[in-house]
Design a protein that fits this description.
By secondary structure, this protein is of the alpha/beta class. The protein has 14 helices and 18 strands. Strands 2-3-15-7-14-13-1-12-9 form a 9-stranded mixed sheet. Helix 1 packs across helix 6.
Length: 509
Amino acid sequence: MPRFNPSRRQVLRGAAGFTLALPWLPSLLPRAQAGGGLPGNRTRRFIALCTEHGGVWGANMFPDDDVLTDSMQYAGHTIRRGDLGATADGDQMQLSSVLRGPSADLSPELVAKLNVIRGIDHTFYIAHHRGGHLGNYADNDGNGEDGQIVGGFPRPTIDQVMAWSDDFYPDLSTTLERSMVVGHDISWGWSSPATQSGTVQAMPPEFSSLALFNRIFVPEEDLTTPRPPVVDRVLDHYRSLRQSNRRLSAADRRRLDEHLERLEELQRRLDVAVSCGDIPVPTDDSILEWDDSGFHFDPAAQERFWQLFNDVIVAAFSCDTSRIATLRIVDHFSTYAGDWHQEIAHEAHAPDGSAQQVLADSHQLLFQSVFLDLVRKLDIDQGDGTTLLDDTLVAWSQESGSITHESISVPIITAGSAGGSIRTGQYLDYRNLTNGMGDWEESNEPLFPGLCFNQWLGSALQAMGVPPSAYETDEYGGYGEQFVGEGREAFYPSSVLDAQGQWLPWLQA
Protein backbone atom coordinates (compact mmCIF):
# COMPACT_ATOMS: atom_id res chain seq x y z
CA MET A 1 0.00 0.00 0.00
CA PRO A 2 1.45 3.43 -0.92
CA ARG A 3 2.48 5.49 2.10
CA PHE A 4 1.65 9.18 2.43
CA ASN A 5 4.74 11.12 3.53
CA PRO A 6 3.65 14.64 4.51
CA SER A 7 5.96 17.59 4.15
CA ARG A 8 7.13 19.57 7.16
CA ARG A 9 4.68 22.38 6.45
CA GLN A 10 1.85 19.88 6.02
CA VAL A 11 2.72 18.44 9.43
CA LEU A 12 2.81 21.91 11.00
CA ARG A 13 -0.38 22.98 9.27
CA GLY A 14 -2.06 19.81 10.49
CA ALA A 15 -0.84 20.59 13.99
CA ALA A 16 -2.22 24.10 13.57
CA GLY A 17 -5.64 22.68 12.74
CA PHE A 18 -5.73 20.94 16.10
CA THR A 19 -4.01 23.72 18.01
CA LEU A 20 -6.33 26.50 16.83
CA ALA A 21 -9.33 24.81 18.44
CA LEU A 22 -10.29 26.23 21.83
CA PRO A 23 -9.09 24.16 24.81
CA TRP A 24 -11.63 22.62 27.19
CA LEU A 25 -12.71 25.39 29.61
CA PRO A 26 -15.10 23.89 32.18
CA SER A 27 -15.87 27.15 33.94
CA LEU A 28 -17.52 28.60 30.79
CA LEU A 29 -19.99 25.74 30.38
CA PRO A 30 -23.63 26.34 31.41
CA ARG A 31 -23.69 26.35 35.18
CA ALA A 32 -25.64 23.12 35.32
CA GLN A 33 -22.80 21.34 33.41
CA ALA A 34 -19.76 22.98 34.94
CA GLY A 35 -18.02 20.75 37.34
CA GLY A 36 22.87 30.60 24.81
CA GLY A 37 24.28 32.91 25.45
CA LEU A 38 26.42 29.90 26.37
CA PRO A 39 29.87 30.57 27.80
CA GLY A 40 32.34 30.50 24.95
CA ASN A 41 31.24 30.61 21.34
CA ARG A 42 30.37 26.98 20.64
CA THR A 43 26.86 25.75 19.84
CA ARG A 44 26.29 22.86 22.22
CA ARG A 45 24.02 19.87 21.82
CA PHE A 46 22.73 17.13 24.10
CA ILE A 47 21.65 13.52 23.53
CA ALA A 48 20.47 11.07 26.19
CA LEU A 49 20.20 7.34 25.46
CA CYS A 50 18.26 5.65 28.26
CA THR A 51 18.00 1.86 28.48
CA GLU A 52 16.07 -0.60 30.62
CA HIS A 53 17.15 -2.76 33.53
CA GLY A 54 20.95 -2.61 33.71
CA GLY A 55 22.13 -5.49 35.86
CA VAL A 56 25.48 -5.95 34.10
CA TRP A 57 28.23 -6.97 36.51
CA GLY A 58 31.00 -4.45 36.98
CA ALA A 59 33.59 -6.87 35.59
CA ASN A 60 31.65 -6.96 32.31
CA MET A 61 30.62 -3.30 32.14
CA PHE A 62 33.70 -1.36 33.23
CA PRO A 63 37.40 -1.31 32.30
CA ASP A 64 39.89 -3.09 34.56
CA ASP A 65 40.83 -1.36 37.80
CA ASP A 66 44.45 -1.29 36.57
CA VAL A 67 43.41 1.69 34.43
CA LEU A 68 42.76 3.75 37.59
CA THR A 69 46.17 5.30 38.18
CA ASP A 70 45.18 8.58 39.90
CA SER A 71 43.30 9.18 43.14
CA MET A 72 42.25 11.97 45.48
CA GLN A 73 40.10 12.62 48.53
CA TYR A 74 36.65 13.95 47.71
CA ALA A 75 33.37 14.09 49.64
CA GLY A 76 34.91 12.14 52.52
CA HIS A 77 36.38 9.22 50.60
CA THR A 78 38.98 8.27 47.99
CA ILE A 79 37.94 8.49 44.34
CA ARG A 80 39.99 7.29 41.36
CA ARG A 81 40.50 7.97 37.68
CA GLY A 82 42.59 6.84 34.73
CA ASP A 83 43.02 7.36 30.99
CA LEU A 84 40.94 5.20 28.69
CA GLY A 85 42.73 2.90 26.30
CA ALA A 86 41.16 0.18 24.17
CA THR A 87 42.82 -3.20 23.69
CA ALA A 88 42.64 -5.31 20.54
CA ASP A 89 40.52 -8.47 20.45
CA GLY A 90 40.74 -9.85 16.92
CA ASP A 91 39.12 -7.34 14.58
CA GLN A 92 37.54 -5.52 17.51
CA MET A 93 38.70 -3.04 20.13
CA GLN A 94 37.38 -3.11 23.66
CA LEU A 95 37.30 -1.07 26.85
CA SER A 96 35.39 -3.88 28.56
CA SER A 97 33.32 -6.90 27.56
CA VAL A 98 30.30 -4.66 26.92
CA LEU A 99 32.12 -1.57 25.63
CA ARG A 100 33.45 -3.30 22.53
CA GLY A 101 33.13 -2.70 18.80
CA PRO A 102 34.83 -2.98 15.42
CA SER A 103 38.27 -1.40 15.35
CA ALA A 104 37.20 0.91 12.53
CA ASP A 105 34.48 2.36 14.80
CA LEU A 106 36.08 2.23 18.25
CA SER A 107 39.28 3.87 17.08
CA PRO A 108 41.87 5.45 19.43
CA GLU A 109 40.69 8.86 18.23
CA LEU A 110 37.11 8.09 19.22
CA VAL A 111 38.10 6.50 22.54
CA ALA A 112 39.79 9.81 23.39
CA LYS A 113 36.35 11.44 23.13
CA LEU A 114 34.61 9.01 25.52
CA ASN A 115 34.19 8.84 29.29
CA VAL A 116 33.20 5.82 31.39
CA ILE A 117 31.73 6.85 34.73
CA ARG A 118 31.24 4.50 37.69
CA GLY A 119 29.98 5.18 41.20
CA ILE A 120 26.93 7.38 40.49
CA ASP A 121 23.89 6.36 42.56
CA HIS A 122 20.22 7.01 43.08
CA THR A 123 20.27 7.42 46.86
CA PHE A 124 17.13 5.40 47.55
CA TYR A 125 15.47 2.23 46.37
CA ILE A 126 13.82 3.38 43.14
CA ALA A 127 13.56 -0.07 41.48
CA HIS A 128 11.98 0.06 38.00
CA HIS A 129 11.64 3.59 36.68
CA ARG A 130 11.87 5.88 33.67
CA GLY A 131 12.33 9.21 35.39
CA GLY A 132 15.62 8.64 37.17
CA HIS A 133 17.66 8.92 33.98
CA LEU A 134 16.97 12.65 33.53
CA GLY A 135 15.74 13.83 36.91
CA ASN A 136 12.00 13.14 37.22
CA TYR A 137 12.14 10.56 40.01
CA ALA A 138 8.35 10.63 40.29
CA ASP A 139 8.04 8.40 37.22
CA ASN A 140 8.72 5.01 38.77
CA ASP A 141 6.81 1.79 39.36
CA GLY A 142 6.44 2.37 43.11
CA ASN A 143 8.28 -0.87 43.96
CA GLY A 144 8.89 -0.38 47.64
CA GLU A 145 8.17 2.54 49.92
CA ASP A 146 10.95 4.82 48.60
CA GLY A 147 9.53 4.98 45.10
CA GLN A 148 6.10 5.81 46.45
CA ILE A 149 7.48 8.67 48.54
CA VAL A 150 9.27 10.43 45.68
CA GLY A 151 6.26 9.83 43.43
CA GLY A 152 4.66 12.93 44.86
CA PHE A 153 7.41 15.24 43.61
CA PRO A 154 7.40 15.33 39.79
CA ARG A 155 9.68 17.78 38.02
CA PRO A 156 10.77 18.41 34.43
CA THR A 157 13.65 16.37 33.07
CA ILE A 158 16.93 18.12 32.31
CA ASP A 159 16.39 18.00 28.55
CA GLN A 160 13.28 20.16 28.96
CA VAL A 161 15.14 22.51 31.30
CA MET A 162 17.65 22.99 28.48
CA ALA A 163 14.96 23.22 25.81
CA TRP A 164 13.36 26.28 27.48
CA SER A 165 16.56 27.89 28.73
CA ASP A 166 17.77 31.14 27.16
CA ASP A 167 21.26 30.08 28.20
CA PHE A 168 21.05 26.95 26.07
CA TYR A 169 18.97 28.45 23.23
CA PRO A 170 19.99 32.12 23.06
CA ASP A 171 18.74 32.24 19.47
CA LEU A 172 15.82 30.18 18.13
CA SER A 173 15.90 31.56 14.58
CA THR A 174 16.83 28.16 13.08
CA THR A 175 15.14 25.91 15.65
CA LEU A 176 12.19 23.80 14.54
CA GLU A 177 12.16 21.35 17.45
CA ARG A 178 13.42 22.50 20.83
CA SER A 179 13.86 18.83 21.70
CA MET A 180 13.31 15.52 19.91
CA VAL A 181 11.84 12.70 22.01
CA VAL A 182 12.21 9.23 20.51
CA GLY A 183 10.88 5.84 21.59
CA HIS A 184 8.89 5.63 24.80
CA ASP A 185 8.19 8.19 27.54
CA ILE A 186 11.44 9.57 28.92
CA SER A 187 10.99 13.35 28.84
CA TRP A 188 8.74 15.54 31.04
CA GLY A 189 8.10 19.26 31.02
CA TRP A 190 5.87 21.96 32.46
CA SER A 191 2.46 22.44 30.85
CA SER A 192 3.50 26.13 30.76
CA PRO A 193 7.23 25.82 30.03
CA ALA A 194 7.79 29.52 29.33
CA THR A 195 6.76 30.36 32.90
CA GLN A 196 7.89 27.03 34.43
CA SER A 197 4.46 26.46 35.92
CA GLY A 198 1.39 24.27 35.63
CA THR A 199 1.57 20.48 35.71
CA VAL A 200 4.52 18.26 34.82
CA GLN A 201 3.53 16.17 31.82
CA ALA A 202 5.14 13.63 29.52
CA MET A 203 6.44 14.89 26.19
CA PRO A 204 4.98 12.80 23.33
CA PRO A 205 7.60 10.47 21.84
CA GLU A 206 8.07 9.74 18.14
CA PHE A 207 8.29 6.25 16.62
CA SER A 208 8.54 7.28 12.97
CA SER A 209 11.96 8.49 11.83
CA LEU A 210 10.43 9.93 8.66
CA ALA A 211 7.83 11.92 10.60
CA LEU A 212 10.59 13.32 12.79
CA PHE A 213 12.66 14.19 9.72
CA ASN A 214 9.72 16.11 8.27
CA ARG A 215 9.60 18.18 11.46
CA ILE A 216 13.29 19.12 11.41
CA PHE A 217 13.80 19.49 7.65
CA VAL A 218 13.14 22.66 5.61
CA PRO A 219 12.99 21.93 1.87
CA GLU A 220 14.39 24.52 -0.51
CA GLU A 221 10.99 25.24 -2.03
CA ASP A 222 9.62 26.30 1.35
CA LEU A 223 11.89 29.35 1.33
CA THR A 224 9.80 31.04 -1.37
CA THR A 225 6.40 29.99 0.00
CA PRO A 226 4.49 32.83 1.65
CA ARG A 227 4.19 32.26 5.38
CA PRO A 228 1.06 34.01 6.60
CA PRO A 229 0.73 34.15 10.37
CA VAL A 230 -1.76 31.32 10.71
CA VAL A 231 -2.62 32.03 14.34
CA ASP A 232 -2.92 35.83 14.31
CA ARG A 233 -6.61 35.71 13.41
CA VAL A 234 -7.46 33.88 16.65
CA LEU A 235 -5.03 35.42 19.14
CA ASP A 236 -7.07 38.60 19.60
CA HIS A 237 -10.19 36.57 20.36
CA TYR A 238 -8.32 34.40 22.88
CA ARG A 239 -6.80 37.44 24.59
CA SER A 240 -10.20 39.12 24.79
CA LEU A 241 -11.66 36.01 26.38
CA ARG A 242 -8.73 35.79 28.79
CA GLN A 243 -9.05 39.38 29.95
CA SER A 244 -12.77 40.12 30.00
CA ASN A 245 -14.84 37.05 30.88
CA ARG A 246 -15.62 37.19 34.60
CA ARG A 247 -16.74 33.57 34.75
CA LEU A 248 -13.34 32.27 33.68
CA SER A 249 -11.95 30.30 36.63
CA ALA A 250 -8.31 30.46 37.72
CA ALA A 251 -7.74 26.91 36.42
CA ASP A 252 -9.25 27.76 33.02
CA ARG A 253 -7.29 31.00 32.91
CA ARG A 254 -4.15 28.90 33.31
CA ARG A 255 -5.32 26.50 30.57
CA LEU A 256 -5.90 29.41 28.23
CA ASP A 257 -2.47 30.89 29.01
CA GLU A 258 -0.84 27.54 28.25
CA HIS A 259 -2.81 27.31 25.01
CA LEU A 260 -1.59 30.76 23.94
CA GLU A 261 1.97 29.62 24.62
CA ARG A 262 1.48 26.64 22.30
CA LEU A 263 0.09 28.92 19.58
CA GLU A 264 3.05 31.27 19.88
CA GLU A 265 5.49 28.34 19.75
CA LEU A 266 3.75 27.04 16.62
CA GLN A 267 4.00 30.45 14.99
CA ARG A 268 7.70 30.66 15.88
CA ARG A 269 8.35 27.31 14.20
CA LEU A 270 6.47 28.34 11.06
CA ASP A 271 8.66 31.44 10.79
CA VAL A 272 11.92 29.45 10.72
CA ALA A 273 13.55 29.98 7.34
CA VAL A 274 16.75 27.94 7.38
CA SER A 275 17.46 25.68 4.41
CA CYS A 276 18.60 22.07 4.77
CA GLY A 277 18.36 21.37 1.07
CA ASP A 278 21.71 19.58 0.89
CA ILE A 279 20.62 16.85 3.34
CA PRO A 280 19.09 13.85 1.53
CA VAL A 281 15.50 13.00 2.38
CA PRO A 282 15.27 9.48 3.89
CA THR A 283 13.65 6.77 1.80
CA ASP A 284 13.10 4.40 4.76
CA ASP A 285 10.97 4.83 7.87
CA SER A 286 11.59 3.24 11.27
CA ILE A 287 7.87 2.66 11.80
CA LEU A 288 7.99 -0.09 9.14
CA GLU A 289 10.47 -1.99 11.32
CA TRP A 290 8.39 -1.31 14.44
CA ASP A 291 5.21 -2.64 12.79
CA ASP A 292 6.84 -5.99 11.99
CA SER A 293 5.49 -8.74 14.27
CA GLY A 294 8.96 -10.21 14.81
CA PHE A 295 10.62 -6.92 15.71
CA HIS A 296 11.03 -7.54 19.44
CA PHE A 297 13.15 -10.68 18.89
CA ASP A 298 15.12 -9.40 15.90
CA PRO A 299 18.31 -7.51 16.84
CA ALA A 300 18.97 -6.63 13.18
CA ALA A 301 15.56 -4.95 12.87
CA GLN A 302 16.12 -3.10 16.15
CA GLU A 303 19.49 -1.93 14.86
CA ARG A 304 17.89 -0.58 11.67
CA PHE A 305 15.14 1.14 13.68
CA TRP A 306 17.50 3.09 15.93
CA GLN A 307 20.07 3.84 13.25
CA LEU A 308 17.35 5.53 11.17
CA PHE A 309 16.72 7.84 14.13
CA ASN A 310 20.45 8.37 14.52
CA ASP A 311 20.51 9.65 10.93
CA VAL A 312 17.70 12.12 11.64
CA ILE A 313 19.35 13.39 14.82
CA VAL A 314 22.62 14.00 12.99
CA ALA A 315 20.72 15.81 10.22
CA ALA A 316 18.96 18.05 12.76
CA PHE A 317 22.21 18.87 14.54
CA SER A 318 24.01 19.51 11.24
CA CYS A 319 21.28 21.89 10.13
CA ASP A 320 20.83 23.39 13.63
CA THR A 321 17.07 22.82 13.52
CA SER A 322 17.29 21.08 16.91
CA ARG A 323 19.99 20.64 19.54
CA ILE A 324 18.45 18.10 21.94
CA ALA A 325 17.43 14.46 21.55
CA THR A 326 16.29 11.93 24.13
CA LEU A 327 15.90 8.26 23.29
CA ARG A 328 14.37 5.59 25.52
CA ILE A 329 15.38 2.19 24.21
CA VAL A 330 13.31 -0.72 25.56
CA ASP A 331 14.55 -3.26 22.99
CA HIS A 332 16.74 -6.10 24.25
CA PHE A 333 18.97 -6.61 21.19
CA SER A 334 18.69 -10.35 21.70
CA THR A 335 16.93 -13.30 20.04
CA TYR A 336 15.91 -14.59 23.47
CA ALA A 337 12.16 -15.24 23.16
CA GLY A 338 11.31 -16.09 26.77
CA ASP A 339 10.32 -13.78 29.62
CA TRP A 340 13.20 -11.32 29.47
CA HIS A 341 12.13 -9.42 32.57
CA GLN A 342 11.92 -12.40 34.91
CA GLU A 343 14.27 -14.92 33.30
CA ILE A 344 17.12 -12.61 32.26
CA ALA A 345 16.99 -9.20 33.98
CA HIS A 346 15.90 -10.57 37.36
CA GLU A 347 18.23 -13.57 37.19
CA ALA A 348 21.33 -11.80 35.92
CA HIS A 349 22.76 -11.73 39.46
CA ALA A 350 22.80 -15.55 39.69
CA PRO A 351 26.34 -16.87 40.29
CA ASP A 352 26.22 -19.40 37.43
CA GLY A 353 26.43 -16.44 35.03
CA SER A 354 24.15 -17.84 32.30
CA ALA A 355 21.56 -15.05 32.43
CA GLN A 356 24.35 -12.54 33.02
CA GLN A 357 26.03 -13.56 29.76
CA VAL A 358 22.80 -13.06 27.78
CA LEU A 359 22.35 -9.64 29.39
CA ALA A 360 25.95 -8.55 28.82
CA ASP A 361 25.84 -9.67 25.19
CA SER A 362 22.66 -7.66 24.59
CA HIS A 363 24.21 -4.51 26.09
CA GLN A 364 27.32 -4.99 23.96
CA LEU A 365 25.25 -5.17 20.79
CA LEU A 366 23.32 -2.04 21.78
CA PHE A 367 26.59 -0.21 22.49
CA GLN A 368 28.00 -1.22 19.12
CA SER A 369 24.94 -0.80 16.91
CA VAL A 370 23.31 2.28 18.48
CA PHE A 371 25.71 4.24 20.68
CA LEU A 372 28.81 3.79 18.52
CA ASP A 373 26.82 4.27 15.33
CA LEU A 374 25.48 7.60 16.62
CA VAL A 375 28.75 9.03 17.90
CA ARG A 376 30.63 7.93 14.78
CA LYS A 377 28.06 9.71 12.58
CA LEU A 378 28.35 12.83 14.77
CA ASP A 379 32.13 12.81 14.48
CA ILE A 380 32.08 14.70 11.18
CA ASP A 381 34.17 17.76 10.39
CA GLN A 382 32.39 21.11 10.70
CA GLY A 383 35.01 22.86 8.58
CA ASP A 384 36.84 24.47 11.49
CA GLY A 385 38.84 21.54 12.79
CA THR A 386 36.09 20.40 15.15
CA THR A 387 33.28 17.88 14.73
CA LEU A 388 29.63 17.82 15.70
CA LEU A 389 30.57 15.29 18.37
CA ASP A 390 33.05 17.74 19.88
CA ASP A 391 30.19 20.17 20.49
CA THR A 392 27.81 17.48 21.80
CA LEU A 393 27.34 15.59 25.05
CA VAL A 394 26.02 12.09 24.35
CA ALA A 395 25.16 10.21 27.55
CA TRP A 396 24.05 6.57 27.83
CA SER A 397 22.54 5.67 31.20
CA GLN A 398 20.89 2.48 32.42
CA GLU A 399 17.89 1.98 34.70
CA SER A 400 19.88 0.10 37.35
CA GLY A 401 23.42 -0.58 38.41
CA SER A 402 25.00 -4.02 38.47
CA ILE A 403 21.87 -5.52 40.05
CA THR A 404 18.44 -5.07 38.46
CA HIS A 405 16.26 -2.90 40.75
CA GLU A 406 19.29 -1.64 42.70
CA SER A 407 20.52 1.75 41.50
CA ILE A 408 24.00 1.67 43.00
CA SER A 409 26.77 2.55 40.55
CA VAL A 410 24.59 3.19 37.50
CA PRO A 411 26.87 3.09 34.43
CA ILE A 412 27.13 6.35 32.50
CA ILE A 413 28.98 6.30 29.19
CA THR A 414 29.53 9.67 27.53
CA ALA A 415 30.91 10.89 24.22
CA GLY A 416 31.84 14.40 23.18
CA SER A 417 33.19 17.37 25.10
CA ALA A 418 30.12 19.67 24.94
CA GLY A 419 31.98 22.42 23.14
CA GLY A 420 35.10 21.98 25.25
CA SER A 421 33.29 21.98 28.62
CA ILE A 422 34.04 18.35 29.42
CA ARG A 423 37.37 16.56 29.77
CA THR A 424 37.21 13.26 27.89
CA GLY A 425 39.19 10.03 27.48
CA GLN A 426 38.72 9.03 31.12
CA TYR A 427 37.56 6.18 33.32
CA LEU A 428 36.15 7.78 36.49
CA ASP A 429 35.36 5.72 39.59
CA TYR A 430 33.59 7.64 42.37
CA ARG A 431 32.79 4.64 44.62
CA ASN A 432 33.67 4.58 48.30
CA LEU A 433 35.49 1.26 48.54
CA THR A 434 35.71 1.48 52.36
CA ASN A 435 31.94 1.73 52.95
CA GLY A 436 30.32 -1.11 51.07
CA MET A 437 26.82 -2.54 51.34
CA GLY A 438 28.17 -6.07 50.96
CA ASP A 439 27.31 -8.60 48.27
CA TRP A 440 23.73 -8.54 46.97
CA GLU A 441 21.87 -11.68 48.12
CA GLU A 442 23.52 -14.80 46.68
CA SER A 443 25.40 -12.82 44.03
CA ASN A 444 29.13 -12.26 44.11
CA GLU A 445 28.58 -8.66 43.01
CA PRO A 446 29.68 -6.21 45.76
CA LEU A 447 27.87 -2.89 46.11
CA PHE A 448 29.88 0.24 46.97
CA PRO A 449 27.92 3.52 47.13
CA GLY A 450 29.53 6.62 45.65
CA LEU A 451 28.25 10.06 44.62
CA CYS A 452 24.69 11.16 43.84
CA PHE A 453 22.97 11.00 40.48
CA ASN A 454 21.72 14.55 41.18
CA GLN A 455 25.34 15.71 40.91
CA TRP A 456 25.74 14.07 37.50
CA LEU A 457 22.56 15.76 36.23
CA GLY A 458 23.73 19.15 37.50
CA SER A 459 27.11 18.64 35.82
CA ALA A 460 25.36 17.83 32.53
CA LEU A 461 23.27 21.01 32.76
CA GLN A 462 26.33 23.14 33.50
CA ALA A 463 28.18 21.52 30.60
CA MET A 464 25.31 22.74 28.41
CA GLY A 465 25.73 26.29 29.74
CA VAL A 466 22.73 26.25 32.09
CA PRO A 467 23.81 27.84 35.41
CA PRO A 468 22.85 26.31 38.79
CA SER A 469 20.72 29.37 39.55
CA ALA A 470 18.38 28.29 36.75
CA TYR A 471 17.57 24.85 38.18
CA GLU A 472 18.64 24.37 41.80
CA THR A 473 15.70 24.30 44.20
CA ASP A 474 16.97 22.91 47.52
CA GLU A 475 19.86 23.29 49.91
CA TYR A 476 21.95 20.52 48.39
CA GLY A 477 22.18 21.60 44.76
CA GLY A 478 22.40 19.26 41.81
CA TYR A 479 19.22 18.33 39.95
CA GLY A 480 16.37 16.09 41.03
CA GLU A 481 14.48 15.37 44.22
CA GLN A 482 16.83 14.98 47.18
CA PHE A 483 15.83 11.89 49.15
CA VAL A 484 17.96 9.36 51.01
CA GLY A 485 16.25 6.07 51.66
CA GLU A 486 15.81 4.75 55.17
CA GLY A 487 18.87 2.83 56.29
CA ARG A 488 21.11 4.45 53.67
CA GLU A 489 22.08 7.54 55.64
CA ALA A 490 25.50 6.09 56.48
CA PHE A 491 26.27 5.63 52.79
CA TYR A 492 25.37 9.21 51.85
CA PRO A 493 26.71 11.45 54.64
CA SER A 494 26.59 15.24 54.51
CA SER A 495 29.98 15.32 52.77
CA VAL A 496 28.41 13.54 49.77
CA LEU A 497 25.13 15.47 49.81
CA ASP A 498 26.86 18.84 50.16
CA ALA A 499 28.93 18.14 47.02
CA GLN A 500 25.92 17.78 44.72
CA GLY A 501 26.03 21.36 43.47
CA GLN A 502 29.59 20.93 42.21
CA TRP A 503 30.87 19.59 38.93
CA LEU A 504 31.77 15.91 39.20
CA PRO A 505 35.51 15.68 39.96
CA TRP A 506 37.83 15.55 36.95
CA LEU A 507 34.92 15.96 34.53
CA GLN A 508 35.10 19.73 33.90
CA ALA A 509 37.64 20.69 31.27
